[in-house]
Amino acid sequence: MIRASRISGLVFALLTTLGEGRASFAQTEFPFELHNPRIFGESAELGLPFEAAVARDGSLIVIDWAVQQLLSFSQTGQLQWRSGRKGSGPGEFQQPYRVVPLADGAILVYDLSKPGLTRLNAEGTYRDEVRLDVVFRDVSTMIGLRDGGLAVAGLASPGSPADTNAAVHIFDKEFRFVRSFGPLPTVLNRAVLQDWGVGAVTLVADGSLVFTRRHPYEIYHFTPEGRELSVVRSTLPIVGTPDEALTITTNGTKTTRRVNPKVTLLRPAVMLANGSYLCGRIDRGYSTLDLFAPDGRILGVRKLPDDWKGPVKYDAIRNTLWAFALRDEAPVLLRYTPPERKPNQ
Q: With contact defined as beta carbons under 8 Å apart, do 97 and 112 qualify?
């Protein structure tokens, strides 16, 4: 069971998706270029691509907030199907927020307006609704595991079986809670976490997990059982803290939340085929790509291309990087193949 996140959590997400600004970061030589991508989706009439996830067959499932729909694109960028529409009925969406392809081909959709998760089949047809046995105050990310289970990076509510002081929570293929691990962001006021979020979890090709802590700038590599394999503690600069990103004031029974867009947000880290970590920072819309060696050394920092406007997703099995961009003021899909040569140790 999931409790809908507050609207300021959506503001942080939209800043990540659409923000533009004038901040600046020191750049270093980057070990690979993002030139000549394959461009797809021109004829799909994408409106506002808000979130995306890679399915086991390599297709990309996209949430389009402009029409409250899911779209599936093949590895070659062909539109395969559309699913859903705005509404509150079965297979309809009001605020689709996360999409999760599972090992059996099914697709879960987390809608902020619904208490459970909508399950679709691999062709996008409505199947049923499922519920977790943990209540979350925030769901930062959700991913499917190789064994058919589910990993949720989120803030568990008191009284749930999950550890409220951990960030990553594992469920089996029947969506029953199994274990929790991983550190929450460092904050003074814990209440900001349900808007700021705990961080992001992504899947490695071997089935292990990468967790990006949202403060400080740390990248953890875990087994699905919760054993820590390594941790990168970044020395790259970040602006502000979660407590400075959100001001919460209470006057009687009224609580007001004010977002500060000047605080640095972190993009989810992914482990590339060569073992390096690709992550990034967002400060007032100015975005970087940060590349770390497995031992934590900084391999390069570069400004994200100006026309990248949406989530960046990585297909660990096929070593493919997906991004959204604007071409002629219309959203399109970009596909890149990062190098597989291992960085010098």
A: yes
- Domains in the chain, CATH or no CATH each: 46-129+307-334 (2.120.10.30)
Give the pLDDT confidence score for residue 47 in this predicted structure.
86
CA atoms within 13 A on the CB side of 304: 29
Tokens of 283: 């400060």
- For the chain, how many helices (H) and strands (E)? 3, 26
DSSP lists the bridge partners of residue 291 as 278, 300
* Per-residue model confidence as pLDDT tens digits over 109-141: 999 999 899 999 999 999 999 999 999 999 999
pLDDT in tens, 269-313: 999 988 999 998 987 667 888 999 999 999 999 887 777 766 678
Residue 124 to residue 139: CA distance in whole angstroms = 23
CB 225 within 8 A of CB 209: no
Instruction: Starting at the earlier edge strand, list the strands of the sheet with 117-120.
Output: 96-101, 107-111, 117-120, 126-130
